[in-house]
Amino acid sequence: MEDLIQSGYLGLLEARTHYDCQFNCKFSTYAKIRIKGAMLDFLRKQDWIPRHVAKANRSANIARIELEQIHLRKISTYEISSYLQKGESLAHNDMSN
User: Fold this and answer.
1) Nearest-angstrom CA–CA distance, 59 and 39
2) Which of 86, 80, 84 is CA-nearest to residue 67?
3) Rounded distance, CA 51 to CA 61, Å?
């Protein structure tokens, strides 16, 4: 926890160094973004799972929950995969139209 707080302080120092009043925003607004970014970067470095893998895992868990609520039973990995692939093809079709 102390390391996370330390990364926030480093973000604040970085904000102070890089702030330019010509940005036309308050320092506090700029600093909040830099502090949050520094803390998120720290947390991402601590996680050994790549972001795209973590995102895919979250999507699979959400799909499993949705399918279990619809079918009122345990859902197989194949059903989750099919469900996610259909969603991707629907999203692709929506973007191409």
Assistant:
1) 24
2) 80
3) 15
The DSSP symbol for 59 reads H
**Whether the Cβ atoms of residue 42 and residue 7 lie closer than 8 Å to each other:** yes
- List C-alpha distances in Å: 50 to 1, 36, 56, 90: 22, 20, 10, 26
Let me know if 79 is exposed, middle or buried by CB neighbors in 10 A (0-12, 13-18, 19+).
middle
pLDDT band for position 88 (cuts 50, 70, 90): low
Q: Is the pLDDT of residue 48 over 60?
A: yes
Phi, psi of 48 (to 5 degrees): -85, -10
- pLDDT at position 62 is 95
